[in-house]
User: Fold this.
Amino acid sequence: MIYLDYQATTPIAPEVATAMRPWIEERFANPHSPSRWGREAEAAIEVARRQVEAALGLKGGSLAFTGSATEALNWALKGRVEKSLAGRNRIITVATEHAAVLDTCEWLAGRGVDLTVLPVQPDGRLDLEPLERELDERVALVAVMQVNNEIGVIQPVAEVVELSHRAGALVLCDAVQGFGRVELGDGPDLVAVSAHKIHGPKGIGALWMKKGSEPAALLHGGGQEQGLRSGTLAPALCVGFGAAAKLANERRMADRDHVERLWTAAVDALGDDWIVNGSSTHRYKGNLNIRRQGLDGARLISDLRDIAFSLGSACASGSGRPSHVLRALGLDDRAARSSIRLGFGRYTTADELVHACRRIARHAVAQEKLDA
Ligand code: PLP
Assistant:
C-alpha cells in the first residue's frame, strides 16, 4: 500500500509511539488526582502542553487540550458567541472552511447569529476587499483557516487579523493543516490544532487562546483545563501530541524541503493534462489536488486500491457530495468529480510517490480510451 492521504491523517511517528507506550501500558493514574502517580501524569501533560505551545510559537496566551480540532472549533465559535458583547452578533467566515467551522456557523445561524460566508477567488484565496466591506462594529468573530485541507491553499491570515482587529473583531484560525509546517505568526486570537495531522495520535486536539479571548466553557464538570474544558485528560494522548509537536518543530525545515522535492517529483511523474486546483504559489506543497478532463476520480480510486488517495476531504468523499471547496473555486460538478487529492509528507519516499503517480496517470489515460 502506498499511502497518499496525508491530509486525512498522518502515520504515527515512531518517537510518538515510544513516548506514549508507558502511559498506555503502565502509568494509568488519573492526572487530576493528588497521588504521586497522579502528579507524575499531570507533570507529563504540562511538558506536552509546553511542547505544543512551542511548536505553535504564539505569545500571550494559553493552550487547552480538547478531544479533537472539531471540538476546539465548536468550542471557540459557540463559546465566543456566548461571551460576545451585546450588539456583536455577527460571524464572518469563508466558503472553503472545514465542515467543523461551516456546520457550526450554520448551527449558530439557526439560533440567531448573523452569518456571512465570503466567497474565494478562483485560486482559492480569500479576497480581502469584500472582507473589509463586511467588517463592522457588529462582528464578533472572523473564522479563517490557515491551510485548506482539500486544496492546500494558504489564506492571508495576517491580513485578515489586521482588518478584523481594526474593526474590533476576534479571529479564529483553523490551523490544523498548517501546524508544524507553515509559519502562522502572531495575531489570531484563537487557534485550533489536531495531533493526528502531525504524526500524533487521533482523539486529541487543542485550542490556543490569547489572554482575554477565552471562549465560555462548552463542557462542564470537573473543571479541568482552567475550568474551561471539563473532562479527564488522557496522559498518553497528551504525551503523544507533545512528542509529535516537538518533532515537527525540530524537523520543520527538513520536512518542508522533503515535501517540496516530493511535489516536483509527483508533478513530473504525472505528466501533462493535469491541472492543479487552487493556487500553486500560496500553497502547502504536501497537498497536490489535481484534475484531468473527463476523469472519473471515484473510479480511479476503486481501480487503484493499493494506493490510498482521495477525492477531497475524507468527509466529502464519504458523502458522495461534490466538494464544497472545489465548487467554491468555480468548478462545476463534472470538474469537481474529475479531481483527486494526493497528500504526502515526512514518511513518503520519492520512489513510491513516482511509482504511484505513474500508475495514476496510466489509469487515467486508460479510462479516457475506454470512455472514448
Ligand atoms: N480542520 C481541518 C482543516 C481539518 O483538515 C480537520 C480534519 O480533517 C479538522 C479541522 C478536524 O480535525 P479533527 O479530526 O481533529 O476533528
User: Anything to note?
Assistant: The mean pLDDT is 95.
